[in-house]
Design a protein that fits this description.
The chain has 485 residues and is of the alpha/beta class. It has three domains: 85 residues, Immunoglobulin-like; 263 residues, SGNH hydrolase (Rossmann fold); 85 residues, no CATH class. It is built from twelve helices and 23 strands. The strands form five sheets. Strands 1, 3, 4, 6, 7, 8, 9, 10, 11, 12 and 13 form an eleven-stranded mixed β-sheet that branches. The protein is elongated. The N and C termini lie far apart (65 Å). The relative contact order is 0.11.
Length: 485
Amino acid sequence: MRVREIFVLLIMMVCCLTSSKAQVILPKILGNGMVLQRNQSIPIWGTAKPGEKVSVKFKTQSKSTITDQAGKWIVMLDAMQASAKPATLTIKGSNRIELHNILVGEVWLCSGQSNMQYEMRKNSKVKKPDTSTVNSPVDELERTHNSHIRIFLVTQKNLQKPDSTHSGWSIAEDSALRAFSAAGYFFAKNLNHDLNVPVGIISSAVSGSRIEPWVSSDAFDAIPYFKANNVKIDGDPGKFYNKMIEPLAPFALKGFLWYQGESNCFLGETITYTYKMEALINSWRRLWSNSNLPFYYVQIAPYYYSQGKGPVSYTEYTEPELREAQTMALKIPHTAMIVTTDLNDDLKNIHPPFKWEIGRRLELQALADTYNQKQLVSSGPMYKSMKTSANKIIIEFNSVGNGLVSHNGKPLSDFTIAGTDGKFVPADATIIGNTIEVSAPSVTVPVAARFAWSESAQPNFYNRNGLPAVPFRTDNPLKFTLNAN
């Protein structure tokens, strides 16, 4: 090939590359089949040539902007009502992109470790349980054909570069659903049914992950507790936040769902975990520029942590102390927690199968707290206060719902009581109205009581609304001080 021909070919290649770089490019999360959040301004964003005009059209709306010097652009669509009628979103610059089959409804992001990642294909292998606390839809994959539920599965790689096919969102069925979070799906299914609007659910979870990788690295610096107590933050802070959370913003969301804690329980964490949860919640809310975004999470289920090997000496109280730290995070505004003491049929299995009930209970919290259906009871009984009377401790509760009850009709289990010697012994517990009276023959001067304070506790104390009580101890020595966002 002659020199002139080579030169012309190089010029053509450069022009092609330049033209390609100048095209409008969208982030992976913006794609065909997505759900846009109703009743909020909707960000549509991407990159193009610096100084280029980019226009966005959706239904009756048409907006445009000019890219900045870095080629970045963002357009805010006006808030819209829910719509199950598929529509096309058109983005135009030097090129034209059409995203099809777009709905408007509710969008939630679920995250955490393996119990949130737990796929629907695993759920379908579960034997139907013989218990009145759950209704097992283990054949869900065979009957799910609801085009109003859309799912997006984040991996450690798929948000790192644009996808010209604009794929990623799927209808919740078939192979896409088989690989998707079971807890996330059942949350979305219940929400779609109860609100009668389309629901989009994004799953971004990694098996075995600690909490630290999901937090922006600078978020820990904003919590004085860590510096004041010389707490070293290890565990790759920011690792998953940077590639699996940050690229999703500012996609419009209604809130977050979180199921994690097992890996940090193996570190023997207590109050430190509460502050790490605060750092996580603050960092995500700052990323979406909304300090009020709801954050609903799952308390870890019973499991034999004491039989494991790790960096600390495990006892039967290692898990209750981590669960206590999770409970203390309820002091953070706009949070709620569901209890799972009744959702493990094998205490040697750290991955309990009943994810449909996890999704249902999370959705109850959302209905009550986010969608203002205040008549709903969304939590089991929660410790409020105690007082002593002769040889008894009388305990008062919040979230009594329609009343306190033994779920199986047997005497209340898993209560213990201690006197001045600090030794806890099994206790008799009796429901008196909306209180519990706790006593033991060997304790004449009681000072403290505990409930479900063991890794293996699967108590029968509920409210009449079918929700289990939150484990607690009245002698809690830990203190959590909320920090400003």
